[in-house]
Write a structure and sequence with these properties.
It is built from five helices and no strands. It has one domain. The chain has 77 residues and is mainly α. The chain is 82% helix and 0% strand.
């Protein structure tokens, strides 16, 4: 791995953890250091930080709150 890639990974703990879970990325970065952007995208998918994943998580939380409100209303009756 070149020095820039090593520095980038060592300063981003989430990226380092992702690489430890997916060691094939050591090989990818050693062969082509320009794949850092691709690595970031894959790590965001892995950790659920993409916009669609955040929207889905928010939607699930809203459904849970709605169900709790309905349950509280049913218990009140």
């Amino acid at each position: 791995m070149d020095s820039f890639s090593y520095y980038y990974v060592s300063n981003n703990p989430e990226i380092a953890k992702f690489i430890r879970y997916n060691p094939v990325w050591y090989r990818y970065l050693s062969r082509d250091p320009n794949r850092i952007n691709e690595l970031e995208k894959e790590a965001k998918k892995f950790y659920g930080k993409t916009f669609p994943q955040k929207v889905e998580k928010l939607n699930n939380q809203m459904q849970m709150v709605s169900m709790l409100i309905q349950f509280a209303g049913a218990m009140k009756d």
